[in-house]
Amino acid sequence: MIEQLRQQLKSSFHMKNLGPLQYFLGLEAQHYPSSILLHQHKYTQELLSLVGLSDANSVLTPMEVNLKLHHENGDLLPHPSMYRQLVGSLNYLTITRPHISFTVQQVSQFMQAPC
After folding, report:
1. Cα dihedral across residues 12, 14, 18, 24: positive or negative
2. Is the dihedral of CA 105, 93, 60, 29 positive or negative?
3. What's the rounded Cα separation, in Å, for the pair 108 and 93?
4. Strand partners, 28
5. To 10 degrees, what angle do helices 80-93 and 101-108 make?
């Protein structure tokens, strides 16, 4: 059945078989006999390098408990586009790291005027 599907797709689209999936759109796939593990380790490392946090220490809780963020705290960032890019990348990272979803949602509220 899989081979029939490949042949049908090949007749309609230009394609070639690249073998088992290893890396696609920032997702790494590791194949095991009974499962496939998806992770974004390389994507995370590239993101940390982009923002200059390669040597930062990791924490278990991505956000201080009961922290209240406000729009009027602090000065506007000089390069808000970098903030927006970082928040968008973190949002994509929640595919394999759902535990950061709440924190990413909190910081995404400040996309218009990041402080």
Report:
1. negative
2. positive
3. 14
4. 23, 39
5. 150
Residues in the chain: 115
Structure tokens belonging to residue 32: 């095991």
42, 28 in Cβ contact below 8 A? yes
Residue 106 Cα distances to 8, 16, 54, 91, angstroms: 45, 42, 23, 11
pTM: 0.72
Per-residue tokens: 45: 């490392």
pLDDT per residue rounded down to tens, the chain (115 residues): 988 998 999 999 998 888 888 999 989 999 999 999 999 999 989 999 988 888 888 877 777 778 888 777 778 888 888 889 999 999 999 988 888 898 898 888 888 888 7
